[in-house]
């Protein structure tokens, strides 16, 4: 019989039962979720050397009390129909000037919706699990997929997701012009649904393909950023959603802009797009900007649009405004060090977590490879070690 690595006692179970029935009392229920999350955390820490890739791999190595606690956690989550979030809330990088910074300046985001237990098993402090479909730049995950990932990875790994590559525009029925309030209300509803499903940080894309920018130019983008932020914050104030645990009092929203798609016009240069995106996001009260390539299969990568020096300039601009700068676009393992030195706050990986060459393919292979994730995390640790 395998040696038990994760062990709990009757005292741990009693810590919940003395408060009340976890399936009847919300206070006892949240305590049970916390206890179960701590078991998953210990499994994830053990997995760094055991090389497990999913929770089931660890079950022979946990004792009966630990298993009972895990079972109770799932029953409580499904009973209350309310997903928990990261145990400490999404804490921003110290480079962005936050008062309660996370331990790692630069995070490693792994995109996809299959095999997303693997990143947490490699390094729960460094990785962000991104619930996303890989067939688009920002292929939205479904609510059940986000919820399922949260139940599987516990509350010591960040979950991010997105609500699409571009806003779903709502028009005034009489004039045909954009109804700004209704468009932002629709976007915020999608954001809030993702939060309720267990996501800690939400990305919203602004890939409007109108060449004239009649519909979604800088002024309308600014309105959408501010209105969406206001609507999400109002829902939290009205207690329609659970209050985040981070000290900012806000769920982090990340605006996504694309170097191929201008904001003012189709002729905008990548550096102009990124600079304007940071300015607009900061003015709208958002927490970060992601610069991501739009077409994942045409062969161009992030470095084809922006240099490392330009990225460092953008990171400095974002940090001055209290924002994080995220980057994505078939970035390779060998390039991580340069971007960490440029002080970006998060680097996204899709293809690099699945293929050694670091790019997405048309093969349909969406399986995350543990060895590739380990290699990515090792590069971060060289240049941004966690104390």
The CATH first-level class of the largest domain comes to: Alpha Beta
CATH topology of the largest domain: TIM Barrel
- If classified by CATH, what would the architecture of the largest domain be? Alpha-Beta Barrel
Number of strands: 9
Helix content: 25-40%
Task: Give the mean pLDDT.
Answer: 91
Order of SSEs: HHHHEHEEHEHEHEHEHEHEH
Look at the structure and name the CATH superfamily of the largest domain. Aldolase class I
Structural class: alpha/beta
Sketch the major β-sheet: 8 strands, parallel, barrel
* Radius of gyration based on Cα positions: 21 Å
For the terminal residues, how far apart are their CA atoms?
A: 36 Å
Q: State the helix count.
A: 12
Shape: globular
- The amount of beta strand, in percent, is 5-15%
The neighbouring-strand order within the major sheet is 1-2-4-5-6-7-8-9
């Amino acid at each position: 019989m395998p040696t038990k690595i994760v062990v709990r006692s009757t005292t741990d179970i009693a810590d919940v039962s003395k408060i009340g029935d976890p399936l009847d009392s919300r206070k006892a229920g949240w305590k049970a979720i916390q206890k179960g999350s701590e078991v998953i955390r210990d499994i994830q820490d053990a997995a760094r050397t055991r090389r497990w890739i999913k929770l089931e791999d660890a079950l022979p190595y946990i004792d009966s009390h630990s298993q009972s606690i895990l079972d109770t956690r799932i029953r409580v989550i499904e009973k209350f129909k309310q997903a928990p979030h990261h145990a400490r809330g999404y804490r921003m990088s110290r480079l962005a000037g936050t008062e309660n910074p996370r331990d790692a300046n630069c995070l490693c985001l792994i995109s996809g919706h299959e095999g997303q237990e693997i990143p947490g098993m490699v390094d729960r402090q460094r990785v962000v699990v991104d619930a996303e479909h890989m067939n688009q730049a920002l292929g939205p995950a479904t609510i059940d997929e986000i919820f399922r990932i949260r139940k599987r990875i516990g509350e010591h790994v960040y979950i991010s997701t997105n609500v699409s590559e571009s806003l779903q525009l709502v028009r005034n029925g009489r004039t045909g012009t954009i109804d700004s309030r209704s468009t932002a209300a629709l976007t915020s509803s999608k954001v809030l649904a993702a939060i309720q499903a267990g996501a800690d940080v939400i990305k919203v894309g602004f890939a409007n393909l109108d060449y004239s920018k009649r519909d979604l130019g800088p002024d309308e983008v600014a309105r959408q950023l501010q209105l969406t932020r206001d609507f999400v914050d109002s829902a939290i104030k009205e207690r329609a959603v659970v209050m985040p645990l981070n000290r900012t009092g806000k769920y982090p929203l990340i605006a996504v802009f694309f170097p191929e798609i201008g904001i003012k016009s189709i002729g905008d240069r990548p550096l102009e797009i990124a600079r304007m995106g940071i300015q607009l996001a900061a003015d709208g009260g958002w927490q970060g900007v992601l610069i991501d390539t739009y077409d994942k299969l045409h062969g161009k990568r992030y470095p084809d649009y922006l240099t490392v020096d330009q990225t460092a300039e953008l990171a400095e601009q974002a940090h001055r405004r209290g924002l994080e700068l995220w980057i994505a676009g078939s970035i390779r393992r060998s390039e991580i060090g340069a971007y960490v030195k440029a002080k970006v706050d998060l680097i996204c990986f899709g293809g690099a977590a699945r293929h050694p060459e670091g790019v997405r393919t048309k093969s349909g292979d969406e399986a995350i490879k543990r060895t590739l994730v380990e290699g990515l995390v090792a590069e971060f640790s060289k240049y941004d070690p966690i104390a």
